[in-house]
Sequence to fold (280 residues):
Amino acid sequence: MEEPQVKLVKTLARHRLSNTAARTTVFTALLEHGPVTLAELIRYCEASIDRASVYRTTALFESIGVVQRLQIGWKYRLELSDDFQHHHHHLHCLSCGTVTAMPEDPALENRLKAAAKAKGFLPQDHQVEIRGLCANCQAA
Amino acid sequence: MEEPQVKLVKTLARHRLSNTAARTTVFTALLEHGPVTLAELIRYCEASIDRASVYRTTALFESIGVVQRLQIGWKYRLELSDDFQHHHHHLHCLSCGTVTAMPEDPALENRLKAAAKAKGFLPQDHQVEIRGLCANCQAA
DNA sequence: ATACAAATTGCGACAAATTTGCAATTTAAG
DNA sequence: CTTAAATTGCAAATTTGTCGCAATTTGTAT
Fold:
């Protein structure tokens, strides 16, 4: 797998979009800080770019498949899509609120595909969230 | 299975929460109108209760497992949890926007539980959304 | 390199969604 | 029926998301 940054540039080029400082900043923030709320993302970027640009950039990124939205808890979160990091699902702790990635499970993936096909559905992508208590919060 | 309304009262009691008119109203609205956006829910209730109370009630309901949030497209929707209606997952057609329920698949359910436990996580509930094209839209 | 056209950004305003404090009301329990 | 605690409505504040437009930056072709 090539460098994520390089891949971003190529993806932008493929869509005839400019490679700008703002886009790099948002991308890097997403790369470094896992799934984030938009508010968090804005906080990470606001030293160099405007709120409105963060909105515009993430909307753009989503439309070209660079980021995906997760509805986790009350607010949605954004993370890089499977093209930029390994496909995974999420464990959401209802007590402490943290969201962690779940290792990929081929058997699970297959069941999902099979279930969709059984209804004549052509699956393109999917999202799984398991809510419960993380190891730490079970102890407490 | 007993009457949903009765079950709600019991659930509230179990959590030492009052059984109030506002909570009954919100619950009934959810029971009658499938998965709804918060804006819709407010519209259904605003004749008798305040916007702020709808927010407070749904947040409470979510915390005690009476309602769950679904990601359908960009906005979330609320529906009664599996304790109040049959457990199911969602197929979301990206072309026509319809959302249909997926038949329960025990093998899939088991994989999900196993995956969570492998991380020391205590699963309470989960949610799956598969996005793609429904049978109709594939033809078109 | 330089110049130019097109794409992108920042900067307010704005509109919509969600949250909060607090006084008034309702509820559960005795 | 009384009373303390929980819940609600109301209004105001905050947070989130959009929009138009002038100023800047980018990609491309000299």
In short: Chain A touches chain B at residues 69-71, 73-74, 76, 89, 91, 93-94, 100, 102-103, 105, 107-108, 111-112, 114-116, 118-135, 138 (CB under 8 Å). The two ends of chain A are 40 Å apart (CA to CA).
